[in-house]
Amino acid sequence: MTFQYHRPQSLGEATDLLGKDDAVALAGGTDLLVALRHRVVRPALVVDLKSVADIANGIEVEGGRLRIGGGVVMNRLTRNEEVNRHFPALAQAAAVVGSVQIRNRATLAGNLCNASPAADTAPALLAYGATVIASGTDITRSIPVEEFFTGPGTTVLERGEIVTAVELPIPLKALGSAFARVTRRRGVDLASVSLVCTLDSSGLARFGFGAVGPTPLLAESTFDELATDDGWSRLLSVTSPITDVRAGAEYRRAMLHVHSKRAFQAASDELRAAT
Amino acid sequence: MSPIESAVTLTVNGSRRTARVSPSTTLLEMVRARLELTGAKECCAEGECGACTMILDGEPVNSCLVLAVETEGSEVTTIEGIGAAGMTWLQESFLATGAIQCGFCIPGMVVAATALLERVPRPTESEVREGLSGNLCRCGGYSRICAAVMVAAGGDGAT
Questions:
Q1: How many domains in chain B?
Q2: Given 3.90.1150.10, 3.40.50.12780, 3.30.465.10, 1.10.490.10, which CATH number is that of A59-169?
Q3: Topology of domain A4-48, per CATH?
Q4: How big is the A-B interface in CB pairs under 8 Å?
Q5: CB neighbour class for A149 (10 Å; exposed up to 12, middle 13-18, buried from 19)
Q6: Which residues 5-24 of B have a C-beta within 8 angstroms of A?
Q7: Looking at beta carbons, which residues of chain A come within 8 Å of B46?
Q8: Weakest-pLDDT range from A191-195, A260-264, B138-142, B151-155
Q9: B97 and B63 inside one domain
Q10: Which CATH architecture has domain A175-274?
C-alpha cells in the first residue's frame, strides 16, 4: 500500500483531486481499507472526504424531504428519530450492516458507492424512492437510486463526482413497510437475500431487492395484483439470482418468494394499523 | 517509491501523543508499533474479528480499518486505557466468570463491552450478543464472555 493521502476541506478541492487518474475516495473506509490491503485497488491518491464542509454528517428535514448527509454513518441512521419515524425499514437495514464497529465507520453514501448487489441499505432506499445527490466539478445532480447502479461495483458516477447526500421524500399519506434479510447465520454476515416492501393507501406496492441480481433492484406492483400468483411472478421476474458462496440460485429464488410475501403481509398489516 | 511520512498528533488514553507514519499505516499499526501499546491485536486485518477494537472519539471501531492519518486530533482509548488505575468491574467480572481462555480476543472484547455498557448500562442478553457480534473468540468462549458482561452490568449472568 503506497499512496498519498489528502484531506480536502472544500468540495471543489475534493472533486479536483478525485478527477485525477488513480485517485479513490475514502469515507468510512470499511470497504476501501480491505481492498487496499488485498491490493484490489492500488490508488496513487486517497482522498478523505470527512473534512469536506459540504458533505454533512447530519440528518435534516428540509421541505418535505429527509436529507442524509454523505458523512452519516450507519449507527447514526439507526439511532435517528426521523429515520425511525418515517423510514423504519431503512433504520432496520442500517442496523444489520456488519458489526457495531463497522457501523460506527461505514457511511450510507459509501454503501451506495461501493455498489455491492447485496448493499444492505439499497433495498430500503429503492422502495422509499430515494434520490442520490452527487456533485462534480461543474454540476450537482439528483439521481433516482434505481438509476444509480450499473452493475456489481459500478455506478453512474463519473470520475470526480462525489455523493454529498441522499434524500428521501417523507410520505404524505400512510405507508406500511417491512424489511427482510436472509443470512447464513445470525450475527455478522452478508445477505443471501434482502428486501424491503412498502405499501401505500392507494394500493401501490414497491419492492427493493438485494443480492438477487447484478445490482439492487426496484419492482412495483399493486395490492390487487399481488392477490394472484401471476402478480407475484411478474413482480419477481426482475430478479436473476445466481449461485455463489452464500447461497444457491434455487434457494435464493425460494427465499425471495417466501420473504417477499411475508414482507408484503407485514407492510399491509402496518398500513392497516396506521389508517 | 516510499511516500513521505507525516506526523499525526492525537490523544491516546488521555495523553497527547505524536507519531510519524506513512499514509498507509493503520491506526492499529501506529498504536502497536509507534506508540508501543500492544494490547490491541491484529488478527484478520479486515474488520471481521474485532481483536483490534479501540474507542475512537467515543465509539468502538476496528482500528485495522482506520488509517492513522485519519485520526489527527482524535481521542482514542485502547485496552491499556481501561482499568489503568485498577481493574474495572467489567474486567473483574471477566476474571470471576472464567471468561478468559487463550486471551487473544479479550482486549477487543473488553473494549467493545466497555463501549456497550457506556451506551446501554443495563443491556439485555441479546443486546450484549449484538454488541459483541463483531468480536470473534476462537476458543468459543462466548457464553462466559456474555455472562461476564451481564454480571458487570448488574445482572446474574445466567445464560
A1: 2
A2: 3.30.465.10
A3: 3.30.43
A4: 87
A5: buried
A6: 6, 22-24
A7: 33-34, 37
A8: B151-155
A9: no
A10: 2-Layer Sandwich (3.30)
Interchain proximity B67–A30, CB inside 8 Å: no
Cβ burial, residue A164 (10 Å; 0-12/13-18/19+)? buried
Its pTM stands at 0.96
* Helix residue ranges per DSSP H, A45-149: 74-79, 81-86, 88-94, 100-103, 108-114, 122-127
Return the residue in A50, A78, A101, A186 with the most chain B beta carbons within 10 A, the one to mutate for interface testing: A101
Assign residue B15 the CATH number of its domain. 3.10.20.30
**At residue A15, does pLDDT exceed 60?**
yes
Residues B67 and B114 occupy one common structural domain = no
- pLDDT for the residue B3: 65
Closest CB from B46, B64, B134 relative to A100 = B134
Domain boundary pick from B61, B81, B101: B81
Write out residues 60-89 of B within 8 Å (CB-CB) of A: 60-62, 64-67, 69-70
Q: Which residues pair with B56 in a beta bridge?
A: B59, B76
Question: Would you kindly state where each structural domain of chain A is located, as residue ranges?
Answer: 4-48, 59-169, 175-274
Nearest to B46 among A37, A48, A100 (CB): A37
B44 and B94 belong to one structural domain = no
Q: Could you report the predicted ipTM of this complex, rounded to two decimals?
A: 0.95
CB pair distance less than 8 Å for A34 and B65 = yes
d(CA B41, CA B107): 8
Taking an 8 Å cut-off on Cβ atoms, the answer to whether B26 and A5 are in contact is: no
Q: Residue A198: which residues within 8 A CB-CB, separation 6 or more?
A: A89, A127, A128, A175, A176, A177, A205, A206, A267
CA distance A199 to A205: 4
One digit per residue, pLDDT tens: chain B, 159 residues? Answer: 456 899 999 999 999 999 999 999 999 999 999 999 999 999 999 999 999 999 999 999 999 999 999 999 999 999 999 999 999 999 999 999 999 999 999 999 999 999 999 999 999 999 999 999 999 999 999 999 999 999 999 966 555
For residue A104, list chain B residues with Cβ-Cβ distance below 8 A: 56, 59-61
Taking contacts as CB-CB distances below 8 angstroms, the residues of chain B near A34 are: 46-47, 65
